[in-house]
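ok so i was messing around last nite and threw this chain in just to see what happens. nothing serious, just curious
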Amino acid sequence: MKAFLARWRPGHVVAAWCVYWVGLAAVTLTSTLLAIARVTSAPKNTANVSVSFSNTALHITVSQIGKATYEASASLGQIAFWVGVPPLALYALWLFTRRRPGGTPRSLGEGDAESLPRPDVPESARSSTIHSRAPHA
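result:
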Protein backbone atom coordinates (compact mmCIF):
# COMPACT_ATOMS: atom_id res chain seq x y z
CA MET A 1 0.00 0.00 0.00
CA LYS A 2 2.93 2.31 0.71
CA ALA A 3 4.13 2.12 -2.89
CA PHE A 4 0.57 2.59 -4.13
CA LEU A 5 0.05 5.82 -2.16
CA ALA A 6 3.55 7.11 -2.95
CA ARG A 7 2.60 7.47 -6.63
CA TRP A 8 -0.46 9.60 -5.87
CA ARG A 9 -0.56 13.30 -6.66
CA PRO A 10 -2.66 15.82 -4.70
CA GLY A 11 -5.48 15.42 -7.22
CA HIS A 12 -5.68 11.71 -6.47
CA VAL A 13 -6.05 12.43 -2.75
CA VAL A 14 -8.83 14.97 -3.36
CA ALA A 15 -10.57 12.53 -5.71
CA ALA A 16 -10.35 9.79 -3.06
CA TRP A 17 -11.92 12.17 -0.53
CA CYS A 18 -14.80 12.90 -2.92
CA VAL A 19 -15.36 9.20 -3.60
CA TYR A 20 -15.37 8.56 0.16
CA TRP A 21 -17.87 11.34 0.83
CA VAL A 22 -20.19 10.17 -1.97
CA GLY A 23 -19.99 6.61 -0.65
CA LEU A 24 -20.61 7.79 2.91
CA ALA A 25 -23.66 9.76 1.81
CA ALA A 26 -24.95 6.77 -0.19
CA VAL A 27 -24.55 4.39 2.74
CA THR A 28 -25.96 6.66 5.43
CA LEU A 29 -28.69 8.49 3.55
CA THR A 30 -30.14 5.80 1.28
CA SER A 31 -32.52 4.28 3.84
CA THR A 32 -33.60 7.74 5.02
CA LEU A 33 -34.31 8.94 1.49
CA LEU A 34 -36.20 5.72 0.66
CA ALA A 35 -38.39 6.16 3.77
CA ILE A 36 -39.08 9.79 2.84
CA ALA A 37 -39.88 8.82 -0.75
CA ARG A 38 -42.27 6.12 0.47
CA VAL A 39 -44.29 8.54 2.64
CA THR A 40 -44.37 11.32 0.06
CA SER A 41 -46.37 9.05 -2.23
CA ALA A 42 -48.88 8.34 0.58
CA PRO A 43 -52.30 10.00 0.55
CA LYS A 44 -52.44 13.60 1.73
CA ASN A 45 -52.34 14.22 5.52
CA THR A 46 -51.43 10.61 6.35
CA ALA A 47 -47.63 10.95 6.50
CA ASN A 48 -45.16 13.23 8.24
CA VAL A 49 -41.41 13.79 8.07
CA SER A 50 -39.74 15.73 10.85
CA VAL A 51 -36.11 16.76 11.12
CA SER A 52 -34.77 18.42 14.24
CA PHE A 53 -31.40 19.44 15.57
CA SER A 54 -31.21 19.79 19.33
CA ASN A 55 -28.54 19.23 21.98
CA THR A 56 -25.92 18.62 19.27
CA ALA A 57 -27.93 15.74 17.79
CA LEU A 58 -29.72 15.43 14.47
CA HIS A 59 -33.03 13.51 14.64
CA ILE A 60 -35.09 12.39 11.64
CA THR A 61 -38.49 10.77 12.11
CA VAL A 62 -40.75 9.50 9.33
CA SER A 63 -44.27 8.62 10.42
CA GLN A 64 -47.29 7.35 8.60
CA ILE A 65 -50.81 7.38 10.01
CA GLY A 66 -49.48 8.50 13.38
CA LYS A 67 -46.97 5.64 13.71
CA ALA A 68 -43.22 6.15 13.35
CA THR A 69 -42.04 4.01 10.46
CA TYR A 70 -38.44 5.20 10.39
CA GLU A 71 -36.20 6.98 12.91
CA ALA A 72 -32.58 8.01 12.64
CA SER A 73 -30.31 10.12 14.81
CA ALA A 74 -26.66 11.07 14.97
CA SER A 75 -24.69 13.35 17.22
CA LEU A 76 -22.66 16.22 15.86
CA GLY A 77 -19.50 14.45 17.04
CA GLN A 78 -20.37 11.30 15.09
CA ILE A 79 -21.11 13.30 11.97
CA ALA A 80 -17.87 15.27 12.27
CA PHE A 81 -15.91 12.07 12.88
CA TRP A 82 -17.27 10.24 9.83
CA VAL A 83 -16.97 13.27 7.56
CA GLY A 84 -13.54 14.44 8.69
CA VAL A 85 -11.34 11.78 10.27
CA PRO A 86 -11.00 9.19 7.46
CA PRO A 87 -10.03 11.81 4.83
CA LEU A 88 -7.53 13.37 7.25
CA ALA A 89 -6.09 9.93 8.02
CA LEU A 90 -5.70 9.25 4.29
CA TYR A 91 -4.01 12.63 3.84
CA ALA A 92 -1.60 11.93 6.72
CA LEU A 93 -0.80 8.48 5.32
CA TRP A 94 -0.24 9.98 1.87
CA LEU A 95 2.13 12.61 3.29
CA PHE A 96 4.02 9.93 5.19
CA THR A 97 4.49 7.68 2.13
CA ARG A 98 5.31 10.42 -0.37
CA ARG A 99 8.73 10.50 -1.98
CA ARG A 100 10.81 13.41 -0.81
CA PRO A 101 12.60 15.38 -3.55
CA GLY A 102 16.08 15.43 -1.97
CA GLY A 103 16.02 11.93 -0.57
CA THR A 104 15.22 11.16 3.00
CA PRO A 105 17.22 12.94 5.70
CA ARG A 106 19.18 10.81 8.14
CA SER A 107 17.03 12.14 10.97
CA LEU A 108 15.27 15.32 11.94
CA GLY A 109 17.67 18.13 12.71
CA GLU A 110 20.54 16.55 10.82
CA GLY A 111 21.82 17.52 7.45
CA ASP A 112 24.13 20.09 5.97
CA ALA A 113 22.47 23.49 5.70
CA GLU A 114 24.81 24.47 2.85
CA SER A 115 23.61 21.55 0.71
CA LEU A 116 20.01 22.80 0.69
CA PRO A 117 19.00 24.61 -2.52
CA ARG A 118 18.54 28.36 -2.20
CA PRO A 119 17.00 29.60 -5.47
CA ASP A 120 16.96 33.26 -4.42
CA VAL A 121 20.75 33.44 -3.90
CA PRO A 122 23.20 33.57 -6.85
CA GLU A 123 25.72 30.73 -7.19
CA SER A 124 28.67 32.96 -6.23
CA ALA A 125 27.05 33.85 -2.90
CA ARG A 126 26.35 30.23 -2.01
CA SER A 127 30.01 29.38 -1.43
CA SER A 128 30.72 32.36 0.83
CA THR A 129 31.00 31.89 4.56
CA ILE A 130 29.27 33.93 7.22
CA HIS A 131 31.61 35.94 9.46
CA SER A 132 30.82 36.98 12.97
CA ARG A 133 30.66 40.72 13.67
CA ALA A 134 31.42 40.16 17.34
CA PRO A 135 34.72 41.69 18.51
CA HIS A 136 37.56 39.26 18.99
CA ALA A 137 38.83 38.76 22.52
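not much to say yet. The mean pLDDT is 82.
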